[in-house]
Amino acid sequence: MKRTALFLILFCLQASPLHAAGDAEKGKYILNMGGCISCHHTPNQKGADLSGGLAIKSPFGTFYVPNITPEPDVGIGGWSDEDFIAAMTQGISPDGSHYYPAFPYTSYTQMTRQDLLDLKAYLDTVAPSKNVVPEHDIPFPFNMRFLMMGWKMMFFDEGTFTPNPNKSEVWNRGAYIVNGPAHCGECHTPRNSLGGSDTSKKFQGNPNGPDKEKIPNIRPKGWEEGDYRTALRMGMTPDGDFLGGSMGHVIAKTTSKLTKDDLNAVITYLVEFE
Ligand code: HEC
Ligand code: HEC
Fold this sequence. Notes:
By secondary structure, the protein is mainly α. The protein has two domains: 19-160, no CATH class; 164-274, no CATH class. Helix content is 42%, strand content 3%. It has a two-stranded antiparallel ribbon with strand order 1-2. A hairpin with a 2-residue loop joins β1 and β2. The chain is globular. The chain binds heme C (2 copies). One heme C is lined by residues 34-36, 38-40, 56, 63, 65-66, 68, 76, 87, 93, 99-100, 102-104, 108, 119. The site of one heme C has 21 residues, from α4. Keywords: Heme, Iron, Kinase, Metal-binding, Signal, Transferase.
């Protein structure tokens, strides 16, 4: 009798989500795919980490990217897996307030639950940092977070990526990476005056991108697969130019770190984009 009870307890412990959740090793790969460090690092501090502080200038004001290390007071220590998934896929914080789309949850919403659990498992292993990040400097009325609820109703398309059954598995893997974790469209798709992505012009470039950068069109324009491979691995275009600015970060942190299969999938999707 006692032994049965013990078995039951052990069985439950093993089956509980606390143990089954994420794989931190895989999560580290997802972190790169998501380019999280490009935004969540601390400027002027060696060894880029996730302790936040970078200022992102936008037409709506300046955002200071938060500390996402597992520190309980100034980071996201103590967040449950569900808190994390709600932030990443619904743009909602554990206290129920709405995030600004300067945090690209508008793309991360497409990420699979398993990828997010793996990512959270990795974030839990990072050294906690006590770095305190300044408050956002957003003028009225944009400083009122509840307005983001209206913004979301207009421009936020929530939901996990759904594969296109008419396309190959490789194409679908590429579509997932580009539109979900790697959030390529957040820069390469132009935005309307309220900061919503203009999906009718997907990937057509943005003359007025983040930090006033001019962002090129990445719709197919005669590049061979090898041209994309060289650009996304080494940053060199077929004209012999080197890609820099924020794309330099994307190449260093994301596309050069993709496995061969994942990079091929991304390229397949870009080449066949219509
Ligand atoms: C383009 C810049 C950018 C990228 C890339 C980015 N974030 Fe963020 N993130 C932000 C900003 C800005 C906020 C603050 C949003 C707000 O205050 O409304 C934020 C907020 C968050 C929060 C909420 C923190 C809190 O204290 O409430 C989490 C969690 C988070 N990001 C995780 C991630 C993860 C994981 C990745 C990579 C998959 C990532 N972010 C990539 C800019 C970014
Ligand atoms: C943070 C903003 C940002 C994100 C995210 C981003 N890009 Fe870029 N991308 C740029 C900028 C800026 C340039 C122009 C760089 C330059 O000319 O030095 C660029 C250039 C490019 C080019 C070269 C185009 C040409 O005609 O020269 C390609 C291809 C490209 N990006 C693909 C991607 C892919 C694929 C992703 C997602 C994995 C991505 N980008 C994500 C900002 C971004």
